[in-house]
Amino acid sequence: MAEVRANGISIHYQSIGQGDVPPVVFIHGLVFDDLSSWYFLAGAKLSHRARVVVYDLRGHGKSEHTPTGYGLRQQVADLKGLLDELEIETVRLVGNSLGGLIALAFAASYPDRVDRLVVIDSSAGEDGWGDAMARAVSQTDDAAQSKVPHWFAPWAHRYSGRKSNRLVKTATRLARETTLSADLRASPTLSDRQLAQITCPTLAIYGADSSFLASGQRLQRVLPGCTLHQIEGASHSVVHEATSAIYDAIEPFVAPPRYLFVAPPLTGHINPMVSVAEASRAQGADIAWAGHPTALGRSVPPDHTLYPLDEPDQLSGTVASQALGSAVGYQRYKHLIEDVYVPLAEAMVAGVAEATRVFRPDAIIADQYAYAGAIVAEQCGLPWVTSAPSGTSVIDNLASVPKVRAWRDDALAELASSHGVDRPIFMSPTLALAYTLPDLVAGPLLDGPIEFVGPAFTHRSDAVAFPWDALDDRPLVFVTLGTVHSDAGDRFFREVLAAARDWDIQFVLVAPERFADEAPDHVIVRPYVPQIEILQRADAVVCHGGYNTTLEALAHGVPLVVAPIGDDQPTVAEAVVSAGVGVRLKFRRARAPQIRNAISEVLTVPSYRESAERLRQRIGASGGAQAAAALIYRRIRESMRKPQVA
Questions:
Q1: Cα–Cα separations (whole angstroms), residue 211 to 206, 235, 367
Q2: Fewest CB atoms less than 10 Å from the CB: which of 205, 233, 382, 408?
Q3: What pLDDT does residue 456 have?
Q4: DSSP alpha helices (H): ranges in 283-365?
């Protein structure tokens, strides 16, 4: 039995588990309760994520039964004494009922020592709280004393007969043999000003049918960092009535999961991951990135933690494009694997491994072609999630060419084996995120846990300057060939510029700066642009059929002109035409008249805009980044095993 001498009494406690976050201390409720309720309801399960401390309040369980000292100030002093004896400076507190009030009072008195706070169906220290609580354990007459066991009957059936009888005896003894009632009546209230001293993130969990719900609403109003979470159909005994829901709310808040995002230096691959990272962070996760700072810096918010990797020239989008050269079909696919993605993995593995060692994530979220993320996850025994950069990435495009598929599988197996991994690294066995809708994907799906979440761009931040004042009320056409193909599109860009001449509409062209000298005044040329913001104003998009750009345009109800270059882009172009949201051009043959006619068609024929608007509404209901973040948490939680990082 673990005991410490604190604040002049003997306090019984249990400490289990370990972790990088501050210890989580659970405080139980008054009279008919002790540390075992928290130990079995949450403490033991949470101990694989954090150090957990549960303790018996004075007079409860195996802590010392003193005749006096049950007021709020004494209970706060007991908690401080316990933490001091255990050498815990910063703590995360979880308190139920009276335990929640003790946690609030402690956090108000010692705000620098509380990192996070969870209050469960507790009074917030309003006027009269002590009188109300004292009435339940009044010592004023024998009749009241005899009713003590009955007042706590709603809790009794939750326990075995032996434990129930023991708790009833404790309740009766506290009512008859201590100054509990008088101490409660003499306890102070907590003013709004005192509560406002609590600035740490706070989660207030209340039963929707609880008589204490107004206290939770007060906390939400007064505490600057408080979130109120109501559980429908639950009352004051919400911990017992909705045990699973309580734990599901507490765990990510007091011991948030840690995700390391691993991305290649390709903007189209990074962008959806940024939205998922932001959504995960909003849902309580700690996130960090391992990648190349130049590419990540264009999309990742500056307050995200970044473990930078070296940026050798051979990994740039320009050289990747040159490596592909004029290759088409499966020869192009072979070049991508051999000359881009495998060398990229070899260059990234050491840096990703070091980021994993330092950050100690619970899981790795890796782009499907950032093989280093999967390799390091397998090396460390971590669950990992695949971020598929396009809907066609989850299609078995090699089903009809088994020899090409076998070559691909052998190449990736050799890569993995060279780093001591003997499991497939092309797709996670835990979760693969597809940022599209199922009916926009044509072809047999790869085997694996694929989930369609729709486009993920809601939290994207394109941190680049743009001359917004140069735009006016004329129709706006946005032209882009994406990250890899931008430097290979010289002829197409010049044809676009020719199509734009003497046309009273505006263009934004994503192209190398050298084209700015050739552009008329109504064409804005920039190498990088805030794409989401431009799509919000665009009337048509001209692109190569990159999946992110296509879906982002449709998510804004913007019709398209698609000129596919290679890879999965012809499939995307066919989907655009089949859905009635755009027209297709031949990239290598398109000239200014054809480009101009195609743009004019999608701008003037209403059906294109109408079909795009219908898709916009369906995409909006698909969940996007928020759905992806929720799936990651659920799947990782189901599959999580203790990391074994050297």
A1: 9, 7, 48
A2: 233
A3: 85
A4: 293-297, 317-324, 329-335, 342-359
Distance CA 455, CA 554 (A): 9
pLDDT in tens, 177-212: 899 999 999 999 999 999 999 999 999 999 999 999
d(CA 351, CA 401): 35
Total H helices, total E strands in the chain: 29, 21
Q: At what angle do helices 402-417 and 342-359 cross, to 10 degrees?
A: 40
Residue 93 β-bridge partners = 25, 117
Give the residue with greater pLDDT, 402 vs 541. 541
pTM here is: 0.69
Around Cβ 252, how many Cβ atoms within 10 Å? 17
SS3 352: helix
Reduce the secondary structure of 521-565 to three states and give it as a string: CCEEEECCCCHHHHHCCCCEEEECCCHHHHHHHHHCCCCEEECCC
What is the percentage of the chain residues whose pLDDT exceeds 70?
A: 89
Give the bridge partners for 206, in sequence order: 230
SS3 518: helix
Secondary-structure breakdown of the chain: helix, strand, coil percentages, each rounded to the nearest 5: 45, 15, 35
Strand positions, DSSP E, 74-156 = 91-96, 114-120
- Copy the structure tokens of residue 128: 């009269």
DSSP-derived letter for residue 433 is E
What tokens were used for 439? 């009916």
Please report, for residues 525, 542, 564, 578, the alpha-carbon distance to residue 521 in angstroms, rounded to integers and kept in the order given: 10, 19, 28, 35
Residue 544: is it exposed, middle or buried by C-beta count within 10 angstroms (0-12/13-18/19+)? buried
Q: According to the model, what pLDDT value does residue 643 have?
A: 41
